[in-house]
Amino acid sequence: MIVLPDEREPVAQLLGFLEYGERLAQDCAAAQAALVADPGHRRFLLGQARQESMHATVFRGVIAWLAPRRLSATPLLPPLERYRALVEDAITRRDLHETLMAEQLILEGLGEAILNRIEAGLVKRGAPFGRLRRILLHQEEAHHGFGRRLLDRARAEGALQPDRLRGRAEEYLGLTQDMVLTLASLFSTIDEDASAWASDVRLYVPEWCVG
């Protein structure tokens, strides 16, 4: 893979934020497994937690290759910290529907959007490990689809309050936009448009949740 010398630090820094996001997703999926009654759903969520851990490990390995000194750097991104606090509050309240919206729909949607854009750039650069990258993207799609199915089913059964979730969704979506725009300078370093990445995530949220 061709990574120019002046791109190593910003790319490693971006991957550091992605690794942090994967750790958040891992913790959330593990907690969700204790909130569901269906054994199949529990198995899926525990499997998701393991996959998110693997994703984080992959990102960490790439960081070690690009910029080893970044391994000890803790990402400081207030919107992401606020996002984690909101998710943890929903878990404490045992609000499964809100956690599904925040993690599987919005956070996984952001991850999927980012990975799709990264993939396009990596293909142009002739990057290796194409099969591994496709596996990661497929897993993100599966996590997102799982959450969407559970929420759509709960909505059809009248088990959730769309108006309440809609208000919460706007807060979470606002934070994802803040996250990406905060990193705008890093995106510009690698010739990417941060505003496009920020808007992509809305494509992964159903209309009833944001309309």
TrEMBL record:
Superkingdom of this protein's organism: Bacteria
Gene3D superfamilies registered for this protein in UniProt: Heme oxygenase-like (1.20.910.10)
| Protein known as | Ferritin-like domain-containing protein
Organism listed in the record: Nitrospira tepida
Kindly list the organism's lineage: Bacteria, Pseudomonadati, Nitrospirota, Nitrospiria, Nitrospirales
